[in-house]
Each structure stands twice: as C-alpha cells, then as structure tokens.
Amino acid sequence: MKKKVIIIGSGLGGLSTAIRLSKHGYDITILEKHSTPGGRLNIINQDGFRFDMGPSFMSMTFEFDELFESAGVKNPLRMEELDPIYQVYFEGKQDPYKIFKDLKLLAKEFEAIEPDFENKIEKYLKRAGEFFNDTENIVVKSNFDNKLQYFLELSKVPKKHLPYLFRTMWSEVDKAFTSEEVKIIFSLVAFFLGATPFKTPSIYSLLNYTELKYNGYWRVKGGMYNIVEEIVKILKDRGVKIYTDTEIVKINNYNGKLNEIEDQNGKKWKADIIVSNSDAASFRGKILNRKNYGTAKLDKMNWTLAPFTIYLGVKGKINGLDHHNYFLGKDFKKYADEIFTLTVSPENPYYYVNVSSKYDSEAAPEGCENIFILCPVPDLRYKSNWDDKEKLASSIIRDISTRTGFDIEKNIITKKILTPKDWEGKLNLYRGSGLGLAHNLTQVGAFRPNNKDENFKNLYYVGASTTPGTGLPMVVISSKLVTERIMKDDGII
Ligand SMILES: Cc1cc2nc3c(=O)[nH]c(=O)nc-3n(C[C@H](O)[C@H](O)[C@H](O)COP(=O)(O)OP(=O)(O)OC[C@H]3O[C@@H](n4cnc5c(N)ncnc54)[C@H](O)[C@@H]3O)c2cc1C
C-alpha cells in the first residue's frame, strides 16, 4: 500500500518536497493555514493590479531545473535574466548607480568613484568564487546527522579559506575597494542573512559572486507566483490533495512516531510520514512544546529582519524607477547598528522597490505601474505596535516621490500595507521575521534546526529555518535534502 505523507504548509519548501516525493508513489496531502498556497511566495490581486507579495527575483535558477527534472518534467518556468540587476539611489545624489552584471559596464558606472574598478572586482569575485566552489557541496548541499560529521566535512574545505571566517563582510569590501558607496552596495546582501555587514562573516561575499558572476538575478515571466501555479498544476495532475485554511495546532498521540495531528477545527489527520514546512524552530517550540525551542529560547536566537511591505497601484509611468531599486538613507553605519533592535519606526528608512509592470504589461492596467515596497524593520520582539503604519508608509512614498520627481501620492489608485504583525498572522512567521532564522555561524549547518526530528522518527522539516537556509533556491535545495532523508529512511535509496 502507498505510504501516506502529510506536508504541513505549502510554501515553496512544502510544494517542492511534494513534487519530488510524488514521483515515488507516495500518497501526499498538503495542509495550509493561509487561503492560497505558496507561503511567502504569494500573490496579491487588487483593483486590476497584480503584485508579488514577497519574493520578486531569484538567483541560482538551475536549482529549479533540477527540481522539475527530479520530478520527471521539463522546467515550465519562463525565466528572464536581469541586467542591470538593480539600481541604487544614495541620499543626496540625484542619479542612481546601475548595477550591471557586465563588469565593463559596471566599471564605467563607477569610474568617477572607484578607479581601476574592473581589476578590483575581478580579484574580489575570484576569491569569493573559489570559496563558493570549495564549500557549496560540502556545506550547502549535504545532510548532517550530528556536529562531529559536520566538522569532519568542514575539515575538507581548503585551509586557505580559514581567514574568511574571522573577517567581517565589511572588512572584506573595505580591503577591496576605496569608495564608500561601492563598499555599501556590495555589503547590502548581509542584511538578508540576518545581520549587518559589520557582523556578518566575510564568507558570505560568495553571494556577490553568485549575483555578479555565477548565475545573476532572474525574474519569472508572468510574475513570481507562476512558480507556485506551475507546481500546483503538476501536483494536482498527480493526485496530491491541497487543503487551504487548515492550520495544524496540535499533535495528539505518539509512541516514538507522530501519527496524528490536529487542525484548528479539531479535525484529526493521520499519516505515516509528516513533513513540517512551518518554521523548523518555532514549530518545535509552539506545536511540539520542546523545551529547547520555548519562547525564551526562540527569542534568544538570531532572526532576520521583518518585512514592512506596501503595494501601490499608481496611475502614470515613473521614469526614475526600474524593475529593482534600492533607496538608501544617511549614515550607513548608524543605520546598520540600530535597525535590528529599534523599538520605533526608522526615521530615515532604507528600502527596496520593485516595479514588475516595467517588464510585464499584464501586472498593471495600461499606463499604470504596480509598485511593491519592502522596508526591512525590526521584528516584533523589538517593535510590536504598528499603529503608525500609515505614517511610515507615507514617509517612504514621499521619499520616493522626491527622489524620482514623480508625485506618487496624488496618483495612487489602490494601496495595501502589510506590517510584521500581518506577516506573522498570515503565515506563522516567528515574530514576523521575514526570512526566518539568521545565518550566523552558530545557526548554519549542523547548528541550524535539523531537517529530521530529534524524537519522532517519521517527522521531517523543510524550508527557510532548517538546512541549508533561506531564499528561494536554498529552500528548493532544502526540499532535495529532506527528500533524500525520507527516501533513505524508507529504504528507497
Ligand atoms: C517580503 C519578502 C521578500 C522576499 N524576497 C525574496 C526574493 O526576492 N528572493 C528570494 O530568493 N527570497 C526572498 N524572500 C525569502 C523567501 O520568500 C523565503 O526564503 C521562502 O519563500 C521560504 O519558503 P518556505 O517554504 O520555507 O516558507 P513559507 O513560504 O513561509 O511557507 C510555509 C508555509 O507553511 C504554512 N504554515 C505555517 N505554519 C502552519 C501550520 N501550523 N499549519 C499549516 N500551515 C502552516 C504557512 O502559512 C506558509 O504557507 C523574501 C521573503 C519575504 C518575506
């Protein structure tokens, strides 16, 4: 008889695991708290405008080729590479810097502020690329059963990379470049990992390599939600059942195995194998009541910043905005020192703006733009009251208008704001943290919540807060790792 698998959560992690397992004859059911599948990779349709709710671009697209291939289908996604990858506005400077993947063009962009840029960046990326290539399979693409095994694997990494562990990302860019602006641009990625570049180890400069050399950044034609739609289509064809508006709140009985889980309406669900795509740390604390993941312990962990997101349908075309735009405020060091623990809204916020209607005519009515704004803010441990959301949104909208010379406020057709509280409530994101657990050295590899449960033999985890980490391609890799575990335990491989 087919083994029954229940996946709790239909984020990219849950969906990717389902598509992989579906090829091997499991009887799969997905239970999702939200009203639509996709988790953070979701969609908002409002007044004729379509917005990507969360992710708006990705790197390492080959992981999606591998995902679909592993399920026996050709990748149906139509991807488009971005070049320029994004543009960066600095406060007080009228024109943004365009970040081209073509390093000769990029050198031209920086010629006034960073002489000899091309040589410098080639050297910087060469080092980051060597580190990426020497560690990707060992650290990112492996399952670890214990810390000893992890350290044994790490010992295979060439010793020349050791200094990377002891330097910060900032010191790495500081060594490579003289311009403050160039240093800031290449260290911004640290914030996504859950710390400032002044605290993030320089190993993560490998992300600059993946962005500028290896695979670049890509968007999906028809919107990022197309990823979810295509996977769901395949799953439905294969008989996978997806129940939305179904939140697992309790487990019931066990004898070394987790056989039954219960939803918010008291309905009981049984399975041979259970995979949690709910946050791997907070699920252990809140649903399994594990002492090591109680609220006090979870609050002591390092979490990525929370999203404050604004979705605007605007009449008119805004020339100063491209597909991906970063707007930086004053005094980078002060911002970095304060942002993770602020208890009030930032006065001089740094934020990201995505306008997919620039390249996708169906995302907005003719002559209009769909503007998605993401302002990373402290999580709910530090700022729990969001009554001032309109004030923060207005200050950001005013700022974009000033910097682009287009009066957005006057042309708004539709608007929606999601605060960290909304993100927490919709998707069970712990304290509203947008990307889940941070990636400091004590929270990666064997130190990250494992993808196999410590007590229940048939409970597994997939997604941003288990191995290897956060972001769309990492979550796809996470589904590969957990599928390998399940099939090995099941004697299939
Ligand atoms: C605003 C924002 C922008 C981002 N931008 C990018 C980007 O541009 N590029 C990129 O690569 N990454 C980006 N990310 C990160 C990326 O979205 C995540 O790393 C990834 O989507 C996480 O997928 P997941 O499957 O681990 O979790 P999720 O997407 O959170 O899925 C988990 C699912 O489980 C459900 N769930 C939770 N608890 C329960 C329960 N008890 N019962 C039932 N269901 C439950 C949730 O509702 C959710 O649907 C962004 C994230 C945010 C928030």
Describe the overall structure:
The protein is α/β, with parallel strands linked by helices and 493 residues long. It is 34% helix and 18% strand. It has three domains: 4-78 and 221-301 and 439-489, FAD/NAD(P)-binding domain (3-Layer(bba) Sandwich); 102-215, Orthogonal Bundle (Guanine Nucleotide Dissociation Inhibitor, domain 1); 306-427, no CATH class. It has helices at 12-22, 62-70, 103-109, 117-140, 147-154, 162-166, 169-176, 180-187, 190-193, 206-214, 226-237, 282-286, 295-300, 332-339, 389-404, 420-427, 472-489, and strands at residues 4-8, 27-31, 43-46, 49-52, 79-81, 86-90, 97-99, 218-220, 241-243, 248-251, 260-263, 268-270, 273-276, 306-315, 324-328, 351-354, 368-377, 412-418, 459-461. The longest helix has 24 residues, at 117-140. The model has no long low-confidence stretch (mean pLDDT 96). The chain binds flavin-adenine dinucleotide. Residues 8-14, 31-34, 39-41, 54-58, 247-248, 277-278, 307, 309, 374, 427-428, 434-435, 463-464, 470-472, 475 line the site of flavin-adenine dinucleotide. Flavin-adenine dinucleotide (FAD) binds at residues 8-14, 31-34, 39-41, 54-58, 247-248, 277-278, 307, 309, 374, 427-428, 434-435, 463-464, 470-472, 475.
Task: Describe, in short, the structure shown.
This protein is α/β, with parallel strands linked by helices and 493 residues long. It is built from 17 helices and 19 strands.
